[in-house]
Amino acid sequence: MTHYLFFDVDGTLIPFGKDLPADTLQAVRQAREKGSRLFLATGRSPAELDPRLAAISFDGGVYSGGARAFAEGKDIYASYFSRQDLDFFIEESQRHGWRILLQCDSQSYYAGDFCDLLFSYFYRYIGKPVSIVNLTKLDSLFSVENVTKLILLTPEGDMERAHEIFDARFDVLNNTVGVPSSLMSEVCQKNVNKGRAMLEVLRYYNAGRESSIAFGDGANDYEIIQMAGLGIAMGNADETLKQLASYVTADCDDDGIGKALRHFGVI
Q1: For residue 85, how many other CB atoms are within 10 A of its CB?
Q2: Which of 8, 33, 137, 212 is most deeply packed, by most CB within 10 A?
């Protein structure tokens, strides 16, 4: 049986604040050599990918928390925020002094001091910046279209208030890059997630769910871990994900991916 392997990036393939581990790279390459198909399953957009991932030959991926999916260079799934939802999000965020980023396929857009604040969080809580590319500053965000995911920063630590305003309309998730949840969240469209997008990839290949293996560590991985034939939580994953997973492996910087692939006979 061909295995369809789906990998989260931050905290799964690449440890926070560190390089892509050599043992992870070797294990993933061995899986490809043995016939597995490789896919990203990330909250990042296609334009925000860490350049270090170029060392791995992927067959496609799930991006923007599940709003986009590609296979063999083909665009196979897309879901975008409505104009009404975007305007509501921007207006409420501005009203409360929150900073936001709008993620699109080729660029991500922000206004004001969003990037300065975000990277200050990276230095404070991770020790070095997380690599994010193709960020564009605009005077106004109301004209941005085809938005796939949102990032919300609440510098006063009032994320609970943001949940009160946004939860009924959006899926507001704990961020997966190591910043305290009181300061940063990922905001997705309702019921748009990595798991649903993974099913679109499997459908493209006429592959059954039982052939899929997903690796993750954070809140935006819950659905894909539950829906994959085999859901594997990294040792550094949050406790909720570990409870949902079929198997818990070692940390991402302790050959966690390689150990799991060997345990299940993929390599």
Answers
A1: 18
A2: 8
Does residue 49 have a pLDDT over 90?
no
Residue type, 75: D
Other CB atoms within 10 Å distance of the CB of residue 19: 11
Please answer whether residues 110 and 138 qualify as being in contact, where contact means their C-beta atoms are separated by less than 8 angstroms. yes
CB 183 within 8 A of CB 210: no
- Determine the pLDDT at residue 18: 85
Residue whose tokens read 């034939």? 229
Token pair 């966690």 is found at 256
Q: Looking at this protein, which amino acid is placed at residue 91?
A: E
- Separation in Å, CA 244 to CA 210, 215, 241: 16, 12, 5
Supply φ then ψ for residue 59, to 5 degrees: -85, -15
Angle between helices 83-96 and 159-166 (to 10 degrees): 150
Four-point Cα dihedral 176, 53, 135, 12, nearest 10: 0
Torsion angle, CA of 159/165/169/170, rounded to 10 degrees?
A: -10
- pTM of the full predicted structure? 0.91
pLDDT at residue 50 above 90? no
**110-156: per-residue pLDDT in tens?**
999 999 999 999 999 988 777 778 899 999 999 999 999 999 999 99
What are the strands, taking DSSP E only, across the chain? 4-7, 37-41, 60-63, 68-71, 74-78, 99-103, 108-110, 135-137, 149-153, 170-174, 184-189, 212-216, 230-233, 247-248
Residue 122: both structure tokens together: 């990276």
